[in-house]
From TrEMBL:
A single MF term (Gene Ontology): identical protein binding
UniProt keywords, alphabetically: Differentiation, Endonuclease, Hydrolase, Lipid degradation, Lipid metabolism, Meiosis, Membrane, Metal-binding, Mitochondrion, Mitochondrion outer membrane, Nuclease, Spermatogenesis, Transmembrane, Transmembrane helix
Protein name: Mitochondrial cardiolipin hydrolase
Source organism per UniProt: Strix occidentalis caurina
Transmembrane segments: none
Length: 228
């Protein structure tokens, strides 16, 4: 009786000990996993400074397009390859899986245009707001992007639609002084801030939606001027 009770108590003690040990072990493992996940998922905080030296971004675009066998063929162009502000900007954009809002005064950079078209083909919902006066000039990518089926809206004001920002997956804000032109990318001193910050993303997204609605073609006013 006593022996059985002691054995039971011992068993209970062992069970408790094991349980506690296991619990602590699992707790520790979970805490470590959470810490690792947090390290991995630390919000993006990055600044890209331009000019970016002329460089080959073919690998970044081909990798994103996942064209079979394409990765094995190095680009034959003589430009240096590797990391540069433009390739970093491309990678940030190409991380989009669901949505991409773009608000740009000038968009003529062919590589960035390819990235945007690639996202559109991949099923990402792309919306572009741009400046009416700039979008028609030679080299502008807006016509091509529209032709690819991407939604574009433009201002109808005397002032410029001078913003330069993009929002990836309603999660990451890309903003700064840079217009997406080769001229600016290769020659100008520019800064681009990349951040995952819910508050700033929301403020920019709200403004994008406001402008998007304001530039809705159904509310165009420039025809009414002549009709009177
Ligand atoms: Zn190349």
């Amino acid at each position: 009786m006593w022996a059985a009770g002691a054995a039971r108590r011992a068993g209970l003690g062992l069970g408790l000990g094991l349980g506690l040990g296991l619990g602590l072990g699992l707790g520790l493992a979970a805490a470590l996993a959470l810490a690792a996940w947090r390290r991995q998922r630390r919000p993006v905080r990055e600044v890209l400074f331009f000019p970016s030296r002329p460089s080959c971004t073919e690998a970044v675009l081909v990798e994103a397009a996942a064209e079979p066998g394409a990765a094995a063929r190095p680009c034959p162009c003589p430009l240096p390859q590797g990391d540069c502000p433009l390739s970093r900007l491309l990678r940030r954009l190409l991380s989009a899986r669901r949505s991409l809002e773009i608000c740009l005064f000038a968009f003529s950079c062919p590589q960035l245009s390819r990235a945007v078209q690639l996202l559109h083909r991949r099923g990402v919902c792309v919306r572009i707001v741009t400046d009416a006066q700039y979008m028609g000039i030679r080299g502008s990518q807006i016509g091509l992007l529209r032709h690819a089926g991407i939604q574009v809206r433009h201002d109808q004001e005397d002032g410029y639609m001078h913003h330069k920002f993009a929002i990836v997956d309603r999660r990451m804000l890309i903003t700064g002084s840079l217009n997406w032109t080769t001229q600016a990318i290769q020659n100008n001193r520019e800064n681009v801030l990349v951040m995952e910050d819910a508050e700033y993303v929301k403020l920019f997204l709200d403004e994008f939606e406001r402008i998007w609605e304001e530039y809705n073609p159904i509310s165009y006013k420039f025809f009414s001027k002549d009709s009177k």
